[in-house]
Amino acid sequence: MIVAIDGPSGTGKSSTSKAVAETLGLSYLDTGAQYRAITWWMLTNGVPVDDAAAVAAAASEPVIVSGTDPAAPTIAVDGTDASGPIRTKEVTAAVSSVSAVPEVRSRITALQRSIAAEAAGGIVVEGRDIGTTVLPDADLKVFLTASPEARASRRSGELKGKDATDLSATREALIQRDAADSGRKTSPLKKADDAVEVDTTQLTLEQVVECVVTLVEKAADAKSGGSRGPDGAGGAGGADEKAGQISK
Prior knowledge:
By secondary structure, the chain is α/β, with parallel strands linked by helices. Helices cover 49% and strands 15% of the residues. The strands form 2 sheets. A 6-stranded mixed beta sheet has the order 2-6-1-7-8-9, sandwiched between helices. The longest helix is centred in the C-terminal third of the chain and has 20 residues, at 205-224.
């Protein structure tokens, strides 16, 4: 099973994807961490991130390795653990411009496809262009959304210490990131035509995870030609009723 989970920041992609992967015994890949990793490498090595030509020229240099254990995902750059450094405000401010460079996207997309192809048993891949560009033939595509206010509240709660910002500033930053990601020419952030949209604004993480797990189980049944039936284990009823805000 290959599961693609897309959506903007603050919708619960990472928490949902990791929990779904753990629940179903699948691998997990945070593609956003890969773009953050290459951005961090650019900043660390003095590459001007606002110079697309310079970024393109350096795109093939860093060695990025992603661990796919959902209980303990890792990201390393040139053999160095980058899990902490890639989450700084400096990286967050630069990642959209770096990830918009076609050479960067081509390099990272190839890496993502390779990881997905080699994942034994299946994988949950989260990002912004997984269902549309990276894995358009995924068995299930989910697009998570939420109101700007809910997303800002969640993101503000994640930021600590010197990286913490007030709610209004976080909301504005998210809106700007959305505009940058949705407006880029190469693989923009958008919902795949055949994706299931889940609005997480009014849902708990547990409800979102239950909903997506049910969707995966239904996709697996369809793929194998089987069916659990309306009242069987993994049936769609309970999760769909709780979600209430799901659309194809």
